[in-house]
Design a protein that fits this description.
29% of the residues lie in helices and 13% in strands. It is of the alpha/beta class. The strands form three sheets. The protein has a five-stranded parallel sheet, with helices on both faces.
């Protein structure tokens, strides 16, 4: 159960249903309706030891029905919250000794964002931006009794699928990134891609902006999981900080190279810096996934990121998402901060 303290009043116990209602009232729900409440596991009523909220870099499924087609069910939404058993949250759960138990809440889903919905404030509809928001992932976890005094670690990895600025029609999600990377005629340069509305505005990606977008959920977690360490997990190195190229290996025998990819590389630089600053502003931990995977970006001799059907790295999986080796490095970095 969850404990609520008020001055001069004996602590009051709040069940998962009440916690979910409070979270829904506290945070912005975004454009997608709240997911249905699941029955809380009795063993998790005091909170689960490990809780992870994240996007496809955290879930890292073998297929998602969009970037990589899945066999059988053709409904892409059926794979929205598929999670791979080699993803960094699962590997972290092994390191923490809670793998496969009710003490691990894996609320990670492909296409998740902080708060980017499919409709802008001007009414522009943007199909494909219908994944879970951070608040909805938190509600999903809270419905399972994830947050409580027993919770030891809550880790978040989000932001790559978001629009920058917040209400923009342009986000650097995977399809947008691939379209910009494979545009050999125009390239994906810093000075042109954003001006042509093919890429987010890089100056909008700041620590202050990031912190404000996640603050309500972070405050909620601090309140209902008072003993938990909260980590903001950065993204792995896709390219060195000074790079202007972007690569993708195909079948282990060919490498596509976009030499004019400054906007893509600078996006990841800005996002990494924003997350670091946001963690400081929110008084939470930052996990430096970029340092943990340094030297193993897409254009390196030994990439820890997936190509397309590349048997040298991993035959199946989402392009430019972490390989099992890359996920192991991120899990180890997160575990090192548990204390």
């Amino acid at each position: 159960m969850i404990s609520l303290r008020t001055r001069g009043v004996r602590p009051r116990r709040l069940g998962p249903a009440v916690a979910v209602a409070l979270l829904a009232a506290t945070v912005s729900m975004g454009a997608v309706g709240a997911p249905g409440s699941a029955q809380a596991d009795p063993a998790a009523e005091e909170g689960r030891t490990l809780v992870v909220l994240g996007d496809s870099f955290a879930a890292n499924p073998a297929c998602d029905g969009v970037l990589v087609k899945c066999e059988g069910d053709k409904n892409a939404s059926a794979y929205g919250c598929s999670q791979r058993d080699t993803s960094w949250p699962v590997q972290l759960s092994v390191l923490m000794g809670v793998a496969g138990t009710p003490d691990f809440e894996n609320a990670t889903c492909t296409n998740a964002s902080i708060d980017t919905g499919p409709v802008t404030s001007t009414g522009e509809e943007l199909p494909g931006r219908d994944g879970y928001t951070l608040s909805q992932l938190a509600i999903k976890a809270a419905a399972n009794g994830a947050f409580g005094p027993r919770t030891k670690l809550v880790a978040l990895q989000l932001g790559a699928n978001d629009a920058w600025p917040r209400d923009s029609a342009t986000a650097a999600d995977a399809p947008t990134q691939l379209m910009c990377a494979f545009n050999m005629e125009q390239g994906c340069d810093v000075d042109t891609a954003a001006a042509q509305d093919r890429w987010p505005r890089l100056d909008a990606i700041t620590g202050q902006a990031y912190a404000e977008r996640v603050r309500k959920v972070v405050d909620y977690v601090k309140y209902f999981a008072p003993n938990a360490r909260i980590q903001l997990v950065g993204y792995p190195e896709l390219a060195p900080a000074d790079s202007t190229t972007w690569c993708l290996d195909v079948a282990g025998v060919a490498r596509y190279v976009q030499p004019r990819a400054g906007a893509i590389d600078e996006f990841w630089n800005r996002l990494d810096a924003a997350e670091r600053e946001a963690a400081r502003l929110l008084s939470i931990d930052f996990v430096d996934a970029r340092a943990a995977t340094a030297g193993h970006g897409l254009c390196s001799a030994d990439p820890w990121l997936l190509g397309v059907l590349d048997p040298k790295v991993n035959l199946v999986g989402l392009p430019f998402h972490p390989s099992p080796r890359g996920d192991a490095a991120v899990a180890a970095a997160a575990f090192a901060g548990v204390g």
